Amino acid sequence: RDDGKGESVCCCCAPCTQTGLTCTRLLLSRPGRFCLLFTSMLLLYLFYLGVSWSVEVQAFGEESSAIRTGINTTRAKEVLSSLCDAYNRNEVSGDACHRLCFDQEWTVADFYEGNKVVVVIKDGGQQAVFKSLHPSIEDYESSPEGEKEEDFLRRIRDKTDEELMLGWPSDLIDHLLSILWPSHLRSGGQQLSAADRRSLWALMQQPEYLTFRILPLSRVTPKVIGSCGHMYEVESLVAFRMKGYYMNLKGKILVHLMGTLKLFYEFLNEPLQWCDVRFDNLGLSAEYPKRFVMMDGDLLFTESKLKALMTSKTCKTDADCAIGDCTSRCQADFKCGPRNNENLDVFCEKLINKLFGNAWSKSNKYLNACHDTVTNTTTKLNDLRLTWSWTLSDV
Ligand SMILES: *[C@@H]1O[C@H](CO)[C@@H](O)[C@H](O)[C@H]1NC(C)=O
Ligand SMILES: *[C@@H]1O[C@H](CO)[C@@H](O)[C@H](O)[C@H]1NC(C)=O
């Protein structure tokens, strides 16, 4: 038989270009039928994802398609113009520059300048969200001129390690570069230009950029779509919004919260530590069902990083040792110890108990985990893991 598996896949999953093979014959063959079945299941799954996404958004999401009033549009355009001017002078680069700087006729839908700069522009029917720690590329330290590429790459690795402490192996620098600067891969591994280095080094100085680029493995951070100079574009999320107080809806929200918590505990060998737990900080991503995604990654750490931050603090009382919601004890040597509360504790206190108050029953394992004061945390987490693996196996 000449219609082997490979060819049939080509014919039914992509337009048939081969001559001498008719599609009918292939569709009747066994691999052909398998292929049809596979395609229809895929379509059904995509449909299901689409439906569950829109149900979520209607139930507890707030899509902001409107242009916010009271924002300083002049300032927003000033920030973008100076970036695009630098791009046109070939001083910065990035895979989002061309699109961002194409005609410079932006419709600014939202703008925020505080501990971070966020510009939301309307791009056709869609929104593009650009973020940066500082407004201008001049606000970032530039990298030394005439530095050898390998030295630059070593600094990239060291910076990543300093920020995330995942112990990135030196022989995987190329892989790291392709994560942090995806155009490198597309250019076929050409040397980085001066503009590339300037831009990438500015991005490297932004912990949230590193978190969002490297921790998507955790599946709780928004996608980085691209970058231009010191600004990076992130996936536009639908903000969480409490709309009603029906039990059924709360149940759905609880499942989403648990999906997120599960992923924190599952991240490699480094359970993620989230120290900024607020409903405001939760968003829905079209990519991911049954979980919330962090809107803001500033206080999301790997376990090693948080431990390093905590233990380098000096203190007089326990209060000096808190980093956001993450707490620790002030020890006898006036140094803070490692974190002494759990993501679970903070989720319960700041989200789940607020949502359910006293309306909980022992039969709900998730709510029980928040109210049970007898069982120790280790045991609670083990029980939760078991429950997660049954009820949230697809998260
Ligand atoms: C808006 O930004 C411009 C340019 O930076 C500035 O001159 C102006 O004072 C700002 N307006 C307000 C209301 O803050
Ligand atoms: C928690 O409780 C379990 C069972 O009751 C016990 O075996 C374990 O040692 C306890 N762990 C801690 C850290 O206290």
From TrEMBL:
<dbReference type="Pfam" id="PF12260">
    <property type="entry name" value="PIP49_C"/>
</dbReference>
<protein>
    <recommendedName>
        <fullName>FAM69 protein-kinase domain-containing protein</fullName>
    </recommendedName>
</protein>
<keyword id="KW-1133">Transmembrane helix</keyword>
<feature type="domain" description="FAM69 protein-kinase">
    <location>
        <begin position="200"/>
        <end position="367"/>
    </location>
</feature>
<feature type="transmembrane region" description="Helical">
    <location>
        <begin position="34"/>
        <end position="55"/>
    </location>
</feature>
<keyword id="KW-0812">Transmembrane</keyword>
<keyword id="KW-0472">Membrane</keyword>
<dbReference type="InterPro" id="IPR022049">
    <property type="entry name" value="FAM69_kinase_dom"/>
</dbReference>
